[in-house]
Design goal:
- It is a single chain.
- This protein has about 260 residues and is α+β, with helices and mostly antiparallel strands.
- It has 2 domains: about 5-135, Fructose-1,6-Bisphosphatase, Chain A, domain 1 (2-Layer Sandwich), CATH 3.30.540; about 150-255, 3-Layer(aba) Sandwich (D-Maltodextrin-Binding Protein, domain 2), CATH 3.40.190.
- The protein has helices at about 5-20, 40-55, 85-90, 180-185, 200-215, 245-255, and strands at about 30, 35-40, 60-65, 75-85, 100-105, 110-115, 120-125, 130-135, 135, 150, 170-175, 195, 200, 220, 235, 240.
- A 7-stranded mixed β-sheet has the order 3-4-5-6-7-8-9, sandwiched between helices. A 5-stranded mixed β-sheet has the order 11-10-12-16-14, with helices on both faces. It has a two-stranded antiparallel ribbon with strand order 1-2.
- It is globular.
- The mean pLDDT is about 95.
- InterPro entries: Inositol_monophosphatase-like, Inositol_monophosphatase_CS.
- Belongs to the inositol monophosphatase superfamily.
- Keywords: Magnesium, Metal-binding.
Length: about 260
């Protein structure tokens, strides 16, 4: 079984667990340091993924809901997992939360799955082999300029102090709770780009980033640098992803 097939099976199994809690008043806790909520569904999915994936592969482990073990830094390959990305949407009963699963080798993601069980959307990619949605090939949009581009981003990302000339580009902003889903929507061509300009946890974007790349898009940190994963602090300097013209237009205007 390939790593991608392993992730696909694991994502579907995660969906069965999470849907058992969805819209059923799951127990909720709030993490220390204003790190957001976590539900019993997050923890149940994390426990299953940790057990099943590590039983199948001798890889290291990095997950939002598991205490970090720095032994992963000595590993060639690592699972990078967000059991439920978009937990607030999950709590609210909205559909746009996801399971985000990736395998990175040598710091570069090689296989990735983003699954939205409440929406029946399964995105997948393997490096060099393209990206799919529910088994059908997907590609980024054909928008060829930044003017009028549609960009998935939280509202503060368009604040003037992020941009040259203290002026955000003339884009149309939209929002989804899950960063993994935002990336997948860009890969699908439904939006031209996405960006998050604050420090970004690896588990939020590892899977979606490969899906965008394999759909023909460009992905970088906010300084236009290649993103590498399994860092000592598993956080990157923001993320910008989109088709090539819009991606380049955005990063060129960022301070």
């Amino acid at each position: 079984m390939s790593d991608l097939d392993l992730l696909l099976d694991a994502a579907r199994a995660a969906g069965k667990i999470s849907m058992g809690y969805f819209q059923d008043n799951p127990e909720i806790w709030h993490k220390e340091g204003d790190q957001g909520p976590v539900t019993e569904a997050d923890l149940a999915v994390d426990k299953m993924l940790h057990a099943d994936l590590l039983a199948a592969r001798d890889y290291a482990w990095l997950s939002e809901e598991t205490e970090d073990n720095k032994d992963r830094l000595d590993a060639e390959s690592v699972f990078i997992v967000d059991p439920i990305d978009g937990t607030r949407a999950f709590i609210e009963g909205a559909y746009h939360w996801s399971h985000s699963l990736a395998v990175a080798t040598g710091g570069i993601v090689q296989a990735a799955v983003v699954y939205l069980p409440a929406a029946d959307k399964l995105y997948a990619a393997e490096r060099g082999k393209g990206a799919t949605l529910n088994g059908e090939t997907i590609t980024v949009s054909a928008q060829n300029e930044i003017n009028g581009a549609t960009v998935l981003a939280a509202k503060p990302n368009l604040d003037p102090w992020f941009w040259k000339g203290a002026k955000a580009p003339p884009v149309t902003r939209a929002f989804r709770s899950s960063l993994a889903y935002r990336l997948s929507l860009v890969a699908e061509g439904r939006f031209d780009a996405m960006m998050t300009l604050r420090g970004t946890w690896e588990w939020d974007v590892a899977a979606g980033g490969l899906i965008v790349e394999e759909a023909g898009g460009d992905v970088s940190d906010r300084r236009a640098r290649l993103v590498r994963y399994n860092n000592p602090t598993p956080m990157i300097n923001g993320l910008v992803a989109g088709n090539a013209p819009v991606h380049h237009g955005l990063v060129a205007r960022l301070l």
